[in-house]
Specification:
Blueprint: E1 3-4, E2 7-23, E3 26-40, E4 43-49, H1 62-77, E5 81-82, H2 99-117, H3 121-124, E6 132-134, E7 136-139, H4 145-157, E8 162-166, H5 173-182, E9 188-191, H6 201-205, E10 215-216, H7 224-233, E11 238-240, H8 247-256, E12 261-264, H9 266-269, H10 272-285, E13 289-291, H11 298-307, E14 331-332, E15 342-344, E16 354-355, H12 357-363, E17 364-370
Parallel strand pairs: 7-8, 8-9, 9-10, 10-11, 11-12, 12-13
Antiparallel strand pairs: 1-5, 2-3, 2-17, 3-4, 6-15, 14-16
Helix pairs in contact: 8-10
Length: about 375
């Protein structure tokens, strides 16, 4: 169904985390998030720009999003008739980088299309092969090993099927050893967020003894060649995250042997259209994928659930319950996880949840309507 965007509403929300989240990039206590609402024929579609507060994960950060949307993206989108949401990305493809910002609006258009069609978002994107999503959790660097072990115990007891722990050169081999000693049977992976170089290959190889599912993005965000060299030295599979911003880069990485697994983040690749292409490239090559998270609100979390219904999402992703991060989410009902560590996909239209407008208003710091 064709649609034409009548207006775009930007919202800057501030959502304090239940507990700080630390990676090799630093520690986060509160998420500053830009939400995008697109409106056509009185129907709203919702998207979330998943960039962080600082330009450390990629070049984007919360402060860069609003002016880019207002001055460059919205003028190309407003009043333009789209045959469908798959055509939205092309309207902003002249903008170099900034895929999270562009992807947040693109995702909103997919949600809009689903609501106009009165169907669930997963169906609109061509998903639905998986109706019960396997969930894992991501646990940041803690103040002590005991604190980490307690957090892992809590999440395992809650039923989560995979534990991802953040690592850095100051928090890796000895810490993983303690985790494995305490939890010898859990599915465990390590996420480095580009904290190492190829010179650290020996240190990373020491992780082979702990039979990890994968080491995620150990080297720099633009080092596909070095990841290929590192993978030749490791038994543990390497999973690429920051390196993969397009289906073409996924294809290159797979051909070079740089990744045995790929994490797909909706924002990082620019939205659903490109995420589906990355998924298909990996499926064709027999490379499994999983859905990564960026500490999203319920809107971004719901989009991740829809994405995770595509058939090659065979590994537990970072899609977890709202209550792990927020005292109060901005959707209702909040995302919940079963005792066996799964989320059942909703059949409701759009991303499948309602906006809690009172909760949204309470965390909104800025709002602007673009027409």
């Amino acid at each position: 169904m064709a649609f034409k965007i009548d207006r775009i509403v930007l919202r800057h929300v501030k959502m304090p985390l239940v507990h700080f989240f630390q990676t090799s990039f630093g520690r986060t206590y509160e998420r500053d998030i830009i939400l995008v609402e697109v409106v056509a024929d009185g129907v709203s579609g919702w998207g979330e720009v998943t960039a962080g507060e600082n330009p450390f994960y990629n070049e984007e950060w919360t402060g860069s999003i609003w002016p880019l949307l207002k001055e460059y993206i919205a003028p190309r989108i407003l009043g333009y008739e789209f045959a469908g949401p798959a055509d939205v990305a092309a309207r902003t493809s002249h903008i170099r980088g900034h895929k999270m910002t562009r992807g947040g609006l693109e995702a909103a258009c997919w949600d809009l299309q689903a609501r106009l069609n009165n169907e669930p978002l997963y169906k609109t994107i061509g998903g639905g092969a998986i109706k019960e999503i396997a969930c894992g959790v991501s646990i940041g660097i803690q103040d002590s090993v005991d604190q980490l072990l307690q957090k892992i115990d809590t999440e395992v007891s809650a039923g989560y099927q995979r534990i991802k722990m953040k690592i850095s050169p100051e928090w890796d081999v000895d810490v993983v050893r303690e985790v494995r000693k305490r939890f010898p049977q859990i599915k465990l992976m390590a996420d480095a967020n580009s904290a190492y170089t190829l010179a650290d290959a020996g240190r990373l190889k020491a992780l082979d003894e702990f039979y990890l599912m994968m080491i995620e993005q150990p080297l720099a965000h633009d080092e596909i060649i070095d990841h290929a060299e590192l993978q030749r030295q490791l038994q543990t599979p390497i999973c690429l995250d920051e390196c993969i911003r397009s289906a073409h880069q996924a294809e290159q990485a797979i051909k070079m042997g740089a990744a045995k697994i790929i994490n797909i983040k909706l924002g990082r690749v620019g939205g659903f259209a490109e995420a589906k292409k990355v998924h298909d490239v990996c499926a064709k090559a027999g490379v499994p994928v999983w859905c990564g998270g960026m500490l999203e609100s319920g809107i971004g979390r719901a989009h991740n659930i829809a994405l995770s219904t595509l058939p090659n999402f065979v590994l537990p992703g970072d899609v977890s319950a709202s209550k792990r991060y927020w005292k109060k989410d901005i959707i209702e009902p909040e995302v919940s996880v079963s005792g066996r560590g799964t989320i059942t996909v909703t059949e409701l239209p759009g991303f499948g949840y309602e906006i809690d407008h009172a909760a949204l208003k309470s965390v909104t710091a800025q709002e602007e309507v673009l027409v």
